[in-house]
Amino acid sequence: MTESAKTSAKGRAVIRWLFAAAFIFAVAASGLFTGLMNAAGLFYLVFGSIAAALMGFTGREIATAFRQAAGGTTEMESLGKSAYFWEAAARNAWILGGLGSALNFIIALSRESSGIADVSSRMIHSLIIMLYGLVLAVVCLIPEMKLAGLADKTRSRWEARPASEAEGGPRLAGGAIAADRIIGYVLFAAVLGLTVVFLIRGQPRSGSLPIGKLLLHWPAYLVVLGGSIALALFVGVGPGARAWTLGFAMTGLISLLMGLIQALFGFVHRNVGEIASAVAFIISASSLTLLGLVSVASPLEDREVMDGRREGPGPLSRFFWVLLPLLTFIFLILTFIMVVTPMKQVR
Amino acid sequence: MTERNSTDVNLDELLKRAFAADLPVDVAAGMRERIGRFRETKTGGEAAARGRAAVWEWLFRRSVWAAISILLLAAGILFQGRGSSTPLAERISAIKTQYASLDTTRR
What we know:
The complex is a heterodimer.
Chain A: H1 3-34, H2 39-56, H3 59-69, H4 79-110, H5 116-125, H6 128-159, H7 163-166, H8 174-201, H9 211-215, H10 218-235, H11 242-269, H12 272-306, H13 315-340
Helix pairs in contact in A: 1-6, 2-4, 2-8, 2-12, 3-4, 4-5, 4-6, 4-12, 4-13, 10-11, 10-12, 11-12, 11-13, 12-13
Chain B: H1 3-18, H2 25-59, H3 62-81, H4 87-106
């Protein structure tokens, strides 16, 4: 490739990134005029995505992925891995969107309201984070598709090389990986904490109860934790990190269904307490499931792929990564309907 | 009798004379106590280390974690099924009641 052709390719890449940035800015800015702005949600999604990337990838891998997405490198060997990084970034944005919406929904429900319209508006407002997650996921999928296409073209050449060379040379020391991951987890915890603080600040108080107590509907936490560990143990060590994805996802699905059935029984029995308990169960279980997926299962699967222990994530894992946030969104809408549906209680 | 044998006999006689009677009771008790302590530190330390290792092994056993996880799951389902109330559920209940009263007022 000549020097002028390289410069032209870099220029095109820069223009593409500028377009992507303009797209995100337009989506965020349009929210200012249409009431679709959620500043705390935007902060959570951007910094949460950075933290989630650090939990599963090393700084060097992230830098390589960015360089290759910008067209600034010719390291064909790591194209497949960089494509996987962008797929994982899209996945993280999507899952974080669902998690953010669920957490915001809990906070919206737990605060004192100055009226029905106020609490309804806050509940709907919490769904905006999902929209942000979707936009960010789409933006991340663009470099993924580009790099995956390039990787497919060069795969035959890559596979013809010796294994050690094809995998990008010697691996990083375990310490370096651990340090990146620790930074990722600390940052993620800080982002979650700050987001809750920002969200609470913008809403009325919830009486004397601390937010920690309101966020914790412990039967849901017991079910999701117990079920996930049990399923992961039952699947065994063979599938590796995929067992955790399966554990969290299946327990999440079962919990959502359980909550829905209990809520429907509540409507039949005309028992507000039963419906409220089921709604709290649904929101809390979906939150913990998505938290488990994004902070435990996905980073473990990412490391397996990046360390060359697996070709890529399992098809079931990919299916659950897409399905669970979508189901969370649908169930949040259902819970909203269940909360606002007037019902006379039978005493 | 060789010269060496006669020396052994002399030494034997000397020992018999020196330890003619049993050890005094207090000395024997003191010695027993010291020997007991020594034995305890030797065998007790090993037993404690073995115990600690067994505890760790037990903790990392898959069956233990499986049992704990099943217990957690069952407890969660039972508590939820019994409709145990949490602050979040109470808050949702209050909002739902608010909606119901609003509907009644409208009618």
